[in-house]
């Protein structure tokens, strides 16, 4: 027997104690607006990556387990929110454009124009896979939309790939929250570890790149 909307939302807050912070904010949106509230939360998470989907999505799944909304509604609205947020970032990249990107790149130290050209060539070959798989990688799931806009990937293709990748990511986290019940916050702990690993690898790669550039410039000096 499902709880009423207000009772389920009240129990949701009491059982998992998302009284403040991002969890409390997301719980408030879901309590007030149901599926559309979860969609708004995820759209904002895409535009502002510091908002963690690993909190919002499992919490939405837990709400679904208590009858606040259906699983179908949770997946539909969170995926729609993901696509809307991604399209906003795609638009930012498209407005910024290749010319501005090259002008900005030319002002950066330790980089060459050829590096950007190679990156663009790589994206031209592998952009579809990058957008699809990138939607399932913490941190980069939001950022991948910007280069897609800069390179003007056809919008219907971008939307289709973003929808597919987001649906997979959202389904995993929403269902995890649904199945874990009031232990939904465990999901955030595990995904948080993955996020830190991804960031760590990115920092290591950047440090390696900078080191090789510095050494290369030293060798070029007479």
From TrEMBL:
Belongs to the DedA family. Residues 51-178 form the VTT domain. It holds the Pfam family VTT_dom. Its main location: membrane. It is found in: Cell membrane. The chain crosses the membrane at residues 74-97, 157-181, 187-211. It is a multi-pass membrane protein. This is DedA family protein. It comes from Streptomyces rubiginosohelvolus. InterPro entries: DedA_domain, VTT_dom. Keywords: Cell membrane, Membrane, Transmembrane, Transmembrane helix.
